[in-house]
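Problem statement: downstream parser choked on a complex file, so we are re-checking the raw output for the S-adenosylmethionine run. The parser issue turned out to be on our end (a line-ending mismatch), but while we're here, posting the original submission so the record is complete.
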Amino acid sequence: MNKEIERLIDEIDLLQAAPAEEPMRQYYFIKKCRQYVKEISEKLGRPLRAATVTFGCQMNARDSEKLTGILEEIGYVEESVEEKADFVIYNTCTVRENANQRVYGRLGQLNRVKRKNPHMLIGLCGCMMQEPHVVEKLKKSYRFVDLIFGTHNIYKFAEILATRFESERMVIDIWKDTDKIVEDLPSERKYSFKSGVNIMFGCNNFCSYCIVPYVRGRERSRNPRDIIREIETLVADGVKEVMLLGQNVNSYGKTLEEPMSFAELLREVEKIEGLERIRFMTSHPKDLSDELIEVMKTSRKICRHLHLPVQSGSTDILKKMNRRYTKEQYLSLVDRIKTAMPDISLTTDIIVGFPGETEADFQETLDVVQKVRYDSAFTFIYSKRTGTPAAAMENQVPQEVVKDRFDRLLKEVQKIAAEECSKHEGTTQTVLVEQMNEQDDTLVTGRLSNNLLVHFPGTKEMIGQLVDVKLISCKGFYYIGEAVK
Ligand code: SAM
Ligand code: SF4
């Protein structure tokens, strides 16, 4: 636990009214929740357990670390099996429709567990909760859910939980938008040696298929001083690698009182002593500057990996997607990046079956894949999201056509990724060891600067260390290696 937060919580007098300012207000409710948790725990004669379940992207994974941090401060012990937990919180995603269906399915199962264990609490938060029709459905058909909140007031988790302990009724607290950023809340990292760091929230791009701007609100950047302070604290606590997070990191700084570019922020982060690796995501191609390419090229710490979502290779479709670049502009950007850094690994996101996509459009996408030669790509079938402009577009592509294109794309992506991966065979590169291998406990697993996975003989003492490894044999999308003494 963070000692400074602990000291501030100790000083709080619960007989006084809750403070108005943050984060003190949340510390007050953390202390209040501790009392409730202690009482129930004493009745049951055991500690209370909580499971945080994350759906979706790295942004949600980072939010979940904040939820877990608050739960631990309140007195819950972390539990990985939902069915064994006294409190389960689902941090939801709604980027594609199937993400929503998965949550409803899992909630049905959890209801059966709750019937046998009535003191169990169930919470829902995250992107899906920002959709009014979801909350209506939950109110009507999922009355056993105890608390519901959205993406903008996640920092209020302790306060919402305290309200639930006091009211015994479903608590719903959803905000439409916010310009608020609350600093200095507890957070519990999944890995001791690496961490995500939010540098901005929300998105202003309104790609026509995407629900994110509606559920995550307008773009706002964190103050650079807060970002640097957070990373310095993380490094002092053993972190070697940070992943700077934002929906479009290349437009970082535009909302600050003293605007600052993303490249300038990276220069500052680079100066932090003890920090070994810097990653970031996601980069929107329309905003990727030559200044950023230059900073990446000269940096010793920025990893040789760039995730550059293309979405489609057809200029017509890109226009309908409101991506604001053409196929030619994207390819010329890739050229500039590869000229500056020939060893860079490029990855991407691609959507298949956007409304109106013809076979010729799809061939353009395949052409981009063949020209760029991505090291890997996330391929998605277009999912219609209510409220986005694309949902109302004509010419939705039939499912069987989409499926056929998707299979052909995946095959091409995998073939090229395996060829790109094999290029490193025989070289020695530095690996940040992340964990013991899940199948073979004589091996450890880690990542290269270019994000490729490597398994090699090692022990648990190596976890969190940077180790030079000879890449012996390529297995398609990962390596088997050997530590170099
Ligand atoms: N901000 C990032 C960007 O601009 O690339 C990514 C955000 S989104 C959570 C991650 C990916 O989901 C997108 O790059 C896109 O490929 C995919 N995606 C978003 N909306 C989608 C939809 N309606 N159907 C299918 N895939 C979608
Ligand atoms: Fe969605 Fe586009 Fe914003 Fe990414 S940049 S979050 S794809 S609207």
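For whoever reads this later: Residues 57, 95-96, 209-210, 212, 247-248, 282, 284, 309, 311, 349, 351, 380, 382-383, 385 surround S-adenosylmethionine (ligand 1) (CB under 6 Å).
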